Amino acid sequence: MYNWFVVVMVYFGLSLSTADLGIDPYVAFMLSGLVEIPARIFSIFAIDRFGRRPILAFVILFGGACCFLTVFIAPGVYRVTVAMSGKFALTAAFGVVYVYSAELFPTPVRSAGMGLASMSGRLGSVISPLALVISDIWEPLPLVLFSSLSVTAGLLGLLLPETMGTNLPETIEEGEAFGKKPRQNKSNGDAHELKVAADDDEVDEKLVV
């Protein structure tokens, strides 16, 4: 849910702040829309090649880094380049988080879980325009806020289990155990080895008889 909140908030925050990039606002808005096309294509192929978790964490962290770097760049072409790179990353994250979330939730609660996650994203979209208003306090403050949230979301995303190439959880119990390494009980393993040895001895005795 936190990843949804951050991704949607920063995505709309960057989309709504294109007029502050130092170029014609119509051109900036057009570039902001065009950059979404390769971002969507990238996310489709990247998650099947590198996995959901690393790609989600990478694009969110990269987007946060771009937001932070924009603070130190004067309005103009260079600022547009960095800002559009951040918009590319957050657009890709928007696509990845949909797929990743659906695969993480167990089947019985998948619809409810996706609805709750999407609701947290809508909350981020509502707060996003308000976050831009705090620039009256300090002009770079919205970008600092966006970058801080992105970095925390990207790092926390690394704690989630990878879903690529795995069987999705079908029950609540499977969902709770999803991504956890099974603990091997040494005593049970020793008992199993003794049972196998006993079975082998019994087979040898039958062969002798």
What does this molecule look like?
Helix content is 75%, strand content 0%. The protein is mainly alpha-helical. Helix 5 packs antiparallel against helix 6. The longest helix has 28 residues. The termini are far apart. The C terminus is likely disordered.
CA-CA gap between termini = 67 Å
* Element order: H for helix, E for strand: HHHHHHHHH
Q: Indicate the radius of gyration in whole angstroms.
A: 24 Å
- Total beta-strand segments: 0
List low-confidence stretches: 184-209
Architecture blueprint of SSEs:
Elements: H1 2-16, H2 25-34, H3 36-50, H4 52-70, H5 77-104, H6 110-133, H7 141-157, H8 172-177, H9 186-208
Helix pairs in contact: 1-5, 1-6, 1-7, 3-4, 3-5, 4-5, 4-7, 5-6
What key phrases describe this protein's structure?
209 residues, mainly alpha, disordered C terminus
Quick overview of this protein structure:
With 209 residues, the chain is mainly α. It is 75% helix and 0% strand. Helix 1 (2-16) runs antiparallel to helix 5, helix 3 runs antiparallel to helix 4 and helix 4 packs antiparallel against helix 7.
